[in-house]
Amino acid sequence: MANPQSPYAIECMGITRKFGSFTAVDNLTLRVKKGELFGFLGPNGAGKTTTINMLTTLIRPTEGKALVAGFDLAEQGALVRSRIGVVPQSFALFEELTPIENLWYLGELYEMDRQTVAKRTEELLKIVTLYDKKDVQSGTFSGGMKQRLSVAAGLLHSPQILFMDEPTTGLDPQSRIALRELTQQLNQTGITVIYTTHDMDEADKICQRIAIMDHGKLKALGTSKELKEYAGHSHKIILELDHHDGKLLEELKKLTDAISVTSEGKMVELRVKKLRHDVVHKLTDYLYRHDVEVGEFNISEPTLEEVFITVTKKELRD
């Protein structure tokens, strides 16, 4: 039986999935806390979707064990399915049906009573801002509207865990932003969200913890901040100076405790492992005292893209 006291929504213990001689997911071990917005980040073919397909009972692991909502994935698949919702990458509802008809049909499949379905349908269509389109055929909807309807469908039976498999793929910028905001709002109500993406900026913006996968393996795991520190990346300080020489560059390096300093023309780049709060004041004061005019002055944090490239290398993927 499930353990309601467990702090974890998902526990993977060495799950592996093979297709013939090809290993799509290789010995994946991790835990997702209840109420987390947890991201799977990786290039195409990393194993993200195969992992989601296993955790949602669409395919069985070749090896290993997993608990989803406290239930054994292999032995209690029906109980797992009753606790999860899924938002697939592409629209999987009936385009000839209206939003209300689609949700009523799903309610029948879930064997929900009609009063509950009616209440949930109204609530959810308002949450995903489609209530005014409730009687319009879904096939006429934009990509963003279809994905919002998919979210409503995934939430109809009040799941504990919502799986979202690259839900913003192919959407326009406004629809991506709207779907991200909706995902965060749902998570704030207590729903555990498992979010797969290959968009690093997206993962950085919304995921509380991120697992980076590549070639079926878990390569790194942690918060965005932890991943950036783990990979050893640093802040960049970009300066445009009217003049500089080797001595000045060495002084700037010492002043900021920089790991490295490089220059190209008037542009100087300092790599700083830890950005002290007084670094801007020290730099501007030093340059002013030495009659060095500053044009551009920009500080940027390490990015998930740098971590991603470090972890997955720079190979092109199909």
Sum up the structure in keywords.
Rossmann fold; four-stranded antiparallel β-sheet; alpha/beta; Alpha-Beta Plaits
Walk me through the topology.
Elements: E1 8-19, E2 22-33, E3 37-41, H1 48-55, E4 63-68, E5 71-72, H2 77-83, E6 84-87, H3 99-109, H4 114-127, H5 143-155, E7 161-165, H6 173-188, E8 192-197, H7 200-206, E9 209-214, E10 217-222, H8 224-230, E11 235-241, H9 246-256, E12 258-264, E13 267-272, H10 279-289, E14 294-300, H11 304-312
Parallel strand pairs: 3-8, 3-9, 6-7, 7-8
Antiparallel strand pairs: 1-2, 1-4, 4-5, 9-10, 11-13, 11-14, 12-13
Helix pairs in contact: 3-4, 4-5, 5-6
Structural features, described:
- It is a single chain.
- Helices cover 36% and strands 29% of the residues.
- By secondary structure, it is of the alpha/beta class.
- The chain folds into 2 domains: 8-230, Rossmann fold (3-Layer(aba) Sandwich); 235-301, Alpha-Beta Plaits, CATH 3.30.70.2470.
- It has a 6-stranded mixed β-sheet, with helices on both faces. A 4-stranded antiparallel β-sheet has the order 2-1-4-5, with helices on one face. It has a 4-stranded antiparallel β-sheet with strand order 12-13-11-14, with helices on one face.
- Helix 3 packs across helix 4 (114-127), helix 4 runs antiparallel to helix 5 and helix 5 runs parallel beside helix 6 (173-188).
- The longest helix has 16 residues, at 173-188.
